[in-house]
Design brief:
This protein has 76 residues and is mainly alpha-helical. Helix content is 39%, strand content 8%. The protein contains four helices and two strands, in the order αββααα. A two-stranded antiparallel sheet has the order 1-2. The relative contact order is 0.19.
């Protein structure tokens, strides 16, 4: 699978944290696109999202590693 096709498949999934539609693809480290996950804007860039306080994640007892694992499971 090429990187672009993989990212397109991830972008078609609902948010891995809350299930919302309309996601952005988050890479855990720059260049690790194959380890990416689908995140809605609030879970990604919102004040309580990954790039904020991460409260949305903490309330659901979700970590970045769990999100990567769940994304892979959904793609399988």
């Amino acid at each position: 699978v090429d990187e672009k096709a993989h990212i397109e498949r991830i972008a078609a999934l609902p948010c891995v944290v809350c299930g919302a539609e309309g996601v952005e693809v988050h890479e855990p480290e720059q260049g690790l696109w194959f380890a990416s996950m689908p995140l809605c804007p609030p879970c990604h860039r919102g004040p309580d999202g990954w790039h904020g306080t991460r409260l949305r994640w903490k309330l659901r007892k979700f970590t970045e590693l769990l999100a990567i694992n769940e994304t892979i499971r959904r793609l399988a």
